[in-house]
Design goal:
Blueprint (H helix, E strand, L loop, with lengths): L1 H4 L12 E3 L3 E2 L4 H13 L4 E6 L2 E7 L7 E5 L9 H10 L18 H18 L9 E5 L7 H9 L2 E6 L2 H9 L10 E5 L2 H10 L7 E2 L8 H5 L7 H10 L1 H25 L2 E2 L6 H7 L21 H11 L3 E7 L4 H21 L5 H16 L11 E6 L1 H16 L7 E5 L7 E2 L17 H12 L4 E6 L9 E9 L3 H24 L3 H13 L14 H7 L4
Parallel strand pairs: 3-5, 5-15, 6-7, 6-9, 7-8, 9-10
Antiparallel strand pairs: 1-2, 3-4, 11-12, 11-13, 13-16, 14-16, 15-16
GO biological process, one term: L-histidine catabolic process
Keywords: Lyase, NAD
GO molecular function: urocanate hydratase activity
Length: 554
């Protein structure tokens, strides 16, 4: 898993140990890598390797059911979790920015978010355009990096016309080599240039040429290469960044204002735009676009444009569906194809067992069935033989048990590692993304993500990780993940059952308590199916005007 994160075909800057996102690192330096490899070659099942922001503290005695590795990245005393202090302490080598799956050794290439992006686009069509078929619809965005590169492939999967801008030639060329965007097909078009130029040119047209729009520049790191200003070349920007950072930062702010102004022009004509959780609206607001705040906004995260979590993915997370994934450790592509077949069979059984009242859940299963049946044909694999599949609590447990049985029976030639993105139902507390649709005042708290890692560790995960930053940036999010090895043993069956139930139910319960109806219905059904689960349920407020009056600004 570590070696895959650093593979030149996978990693953004492998020599610098950066997997994706511009600064999402596995380790701070190559000596740490060598030390970790040494410890892993020596450790036994009665030891746990402890990782402090890339630094291997050492092997410590534990027990067989304890995690083999416990990882923390970027954990700071809250008062010191600022971007300027990150630069200082990163330079000292005492912390690092692990993004999400970079520092937790679970990255599987752009495929890791292709499915989520596909779900977002498909449901954006349903919500904004009232259509199931996106054929002929145009989606414009930016970024062909390690994560944003999924947009071009997702446009292909959804059947729409995707126009994706990328300012860096290396990222553009890498995605082209991997088949994204497809050559000679007018369905996913890569534009090598600045996204601001593209938006402003579209805004000049009299006709509305774009139905859907978003952005995936690396705005978690806007002033250090995550966002390139318009008006100067990529090379000139890099030189200015190194020689005169204040001047570079000023250009970034001006560029952001031009960027959002062009988007606003098109939105007024009928284009539907959403923030993709990369802090685009936040950074535009910080750059001076104060008009972005929604009318009657009672915080600094409610803008005139929704985040995709608020409008689309938040409700899907509340149903318990999130980016579950698995890796065939044999490295054999036939094993991956076999797991696709197993997953398809599992989903078919889940559809049969879903009650008619759970229409939203049934729709997700149906969408996922289509995804897994088409996944092989879309050639999504980059690096490890891995697959992403949005699954709920019941689905994850059923998939894990089915894979474990296939390993035990020799259907698969090697063990399977199951994991997920940190961007999940329970894995991340982020008021500008994963928890932006939580409206009970708790969006700025991090209990869920921290509790989730602790709960996974005590329920049998093979390794766990907890990070500061990831997605929207340092100091703005806490997130965590896990990895679990399915070796075919009966013991692993029980651990997977217990841990995966918790790993999803934790977040659904929190979302239920905040007032989400999808989460309420989901957790009620889960309590009926899972012995011993007893969750605190909210009492609904009948008079919304009374509640809103309590929080009106004076």
């Amino acid at each position: 898993m570590i070696l895959n994160n650093l593979d030149p075909a996978v990693a953004q800057f492998p020599a610098e140990l950066v997997t994706y996102g511009g600064n999402g690192q596995v380790f701070s330096n190559w000596m740490q890598f060598r030390m970790v490899m040494m410890y892993l070659s020596q450790m036994n099942e009665q030891q746990t390797l402890v990782m402090y922001s890339g630094h291997p503290l050492g092997l410590f005695p534990s027990h067989t059911n304890a995690p083999r590795m416990v990882i923390t990245n970027g954990m700071m005393i809250p008062n010191y979790s600022t971007k300027p202090l990150y630069d200082k302490y990163f330079a000292l080598g005492v912390t690092l920015y692990g993004q999400m799956t970079a520092g937790s050794y679970c990255y599987i290439g752009p495929q890791g978010i292709v499915h989520g992006t596909t779900i977002t686009l498909r449901n954006a069509g349903r919500k904004y355009l009232n259509c199931e078929d996106l054929a002929g619809k145009v989606f414009v965005s930016s970024g062909l990096g390690g994560m944003s590169g999924a947009q071009a492939k997702a446009a292909v999967v959804c059947g729409c016309i995707g126009v994706i801008a990328e300012v860096g030639f290396d990222s553009f060329f890498k995605r082209h080599q991997q088949g994204k965007p497809p050559e000679k097909k007018a369905i996913s078009i890569g534009y090598l240039g600045n996204i601001v130029d593209l938006w402003e040119r579209l805004a000049e047209e009299k006709d509305l040429l774009v139905e859907l729009g978003s952005d995936q520049t690396s705005l978690h790191n806007p002033l250090n290469g995550g966002y390139y200003p318009v008006g100067i070349t990529f090379e000139e920007a890099n030189q200015l960044m190194a020689q005169d950072k204040p001047a570079f930062q000023e250009l970034v702010k001006k560029s952001l204002l031009r960027h959002i102004t062009a988007v606003q022009t098109l939105a007024r004509r009928g284009m539907h735009f959403w923030d993709y959780g990369n802090a685009f609206l936040v950074e535009c607001y910080r750059a001076g676009a104060s008009w972005l705040l929604a009318e009657k906004a009672m915080d600094d995260k409610t803008f005139i444009y929704p985040s995709y979590m608020q409008d689309i993915m938040g409700d899907i997370f509340s149903l318990g569906f999130g980016p579950f994934r698995w890796v065939c450790t044999s490295g054999n592509h036939e094993d991956l194809k076999q797991t696709d077949k197993i997953a398809s069979q599992v989903i078919q059984e889940l559809i049969k067992k879903t009650p008619p009242s759970a229409l939203a859940t049934r729709q997700q299963y149906t969408d996922n069935q289509m995804w897994i049946e088409q996944a092989e044909g879309h050639k999504l694999v980059v690096g490890s033989q891995a697959r992403i599949l949005y699954a709920d609590q019941l689905g994850r447990v059923a998939l894990a048990k089915a894979f474990n049985q296939a390993v035990r029976q020799g259907v698969l030639k090697g063990a399977v590692v199951i994991s997920r993105d940190h961007h999940d139902v329970s894995g991340t507390d982020s008021p500008f993304r994963e928890t932006s649709n939580i409206q009970d005042g708790s969006a700025f708290t991090a209990d869920m993500a921290v509790q989730n890692v602790i709960g996974d560790a005590v329920r049998g995960a093979t390794w766990v990780s907890l990070h500061n930053g990831g997605g929207v940036g340092w100091g703005d999010v806490v997130n965590g993940g896990f990895g679990m090895l399915l070796d075919g043993s009966e013991e692993v069956n029980g651990r997977a059952d217990m841990m995966l139930h918790w790993d999803v139910a934790n977040g659904v319960s929190r979302r239920c308590w905040s007032g989400n109806d999808n989460a309420l219905h989901t957790i009620k059904r889960t309590m009926e199916l899972v012995p011993g689960l007893q969750v605190s349920l909210p009492n609904k407020v009948l008079d919304d005007d009374l509640l809103e009056g309590l929080f009106e600004k004076n």
